[in-house]
Amino acid sequence: MPHDIDDHDHPHALLPPDPALRVKALETILTRKGLIDPAALDEIIDLYQNRIGPKNGAQVVARAWSDDGFRAALQEDATAVVADLGYCGRQGEHMVVVENTPETHNMVVCTLCSCYPWPLLGIPPGWYKSDAYRARAVREPRKVLADFGVSLPEETSVRVWDSTAEVRYLVLPMRPEETEGMDVDTLAKLVTRDSMIGTGLALPAGAVT
Predict the structure, then answer these.
(1) C-alpha closest to that of 87 among 113, 55, 119, 111
(2) What is the pLDDT of residues 188-204, one digit of tens each?
(3) What is the enclosing helix (H) or strand (E) of 99?
(4) Where do the structural domains in the chain lie, given as residue ranges?
(5) How far is CA 27 from CA 15, 118, 135, 144, in A?
(6) CATH: 3.30.70.360, 3.90.330.10, 1.10.357.10, 3.30.559.10. Which one for 53-204?
(7) At 72, which helix (H) or strand (E)?
(8) What gap in Å lies between CA 190 and CA 176, rounded to an integer?
(9) pLDDT tens-digit profile of 87-105?
(10) Which of 66, 88, 114, 157 does the annotation list as catalytic?
(11) Which is catalytic among the residues 66, 88, 110, 157?
(12) Is-contact 144 152, C-beta < 8 A?
């Protein structure tokens, strides 16, 4: 019977409990079997973590702040707009942009796994994939925001969006005050990764010179 199988004989039982060590162990096993190329893997990680990071998403947000027509097109069909900019591919399909306003603050979670718009935001942070965030973001979003240092007015409602393989969300944070006259590249420096997930706000104008 299946329940009579000794857990120690199961391949997963040979892996260490810590997630980082499990990943390293799996990488080692797959490399020895010739199933992955470590150099190619390093290139992919560098691409998403350092060269993409949240930079692509920040450019999209900054342009939306600066161009009403672009913002309207983004809200109508974000997938097509970001694809035209070259931000497409794996984990970048089926994009929807949700805009923060004084009345509504949006926050994104993936309750089932960790669906995330990689071409725009890079590699998802560890906390986004954690069980604690995935559960608490739905049950007590204001407390989660407080944990991130975000305090919203009582009259501002919080709306939580559940990302899936069928749809991925990008939060359009509110444009900071006193940023009139800033160009897109300067505005992009005020856009943080967390502000595009909804667990943070855009930086104040004084954050850049």
Answers:
(1) 119
(2) 999 999 999 999 999 99
(3) strand 95-99
(4) 53-204
(5) 11, 21, 29, 33
(6) 3.90.330.10
(7) helix 68-76
(8) 8
(9) 876 655 789 999 999 999 9
(10) 114
(11) 110
(12) no
